């Protein structure tokens, strides 16, 4: 009987995880649709500052769309990992990714320890503690 309760709790937790991933992906899809239009800069009219501000708005809109699209891609990958039974498994060491980390970053593919190693490797091994005092 206790095993049935544990299994049901796991099923409910799994459904909750899938629902959370799907809801976040749906939210991003809505935001991409609503914010899809990149504003046009009126180059012919207005002064230099108006043109510069229009271009800045265009760049911000493109950057936002790019970030949202990348987030959507990572969430789709997380849903695929979930379907394959690999969600919550670190892609580096094969260990479990803590539930707390997955709640904060549902698309996380690495545990905290492996992510720290990857970040150190990416930055050339330097950390804030390694930099000389000013």
Provide a concise account of the structure shown.
The protein has 134 residues and is mainly α.
- The end-to-end distance, rounded to whole angstroms, is 63 Å
Share of helical residues = 55-70%
- Helix/strand/pairing category: mainly alpha
Q: How many separate structural domains?
A: 2
Count of strand segments: 0
- Mean pLDDT value: 81
Q: Tell me the radius of gyration.
A: 21 Å
As residue ranges, the low-confidence spans are 1-12, 128-134
* Major pleated sheet: none
The number of distinct helices, counting runs of at least 4 residues, comes to 4
Using the alpha-carbon principal axes, give the shape: elongated
**Oligomeric status:** single chain
Describe the structure.
- The chain is mostly helical and 134 residues long.
- The chain has two domains: 1-87; 89-134, no CATH class.
- The chain is built from four helices and no strands.
- The model is unreliable at 1-12 and 128-134 (pLDDT under 50).
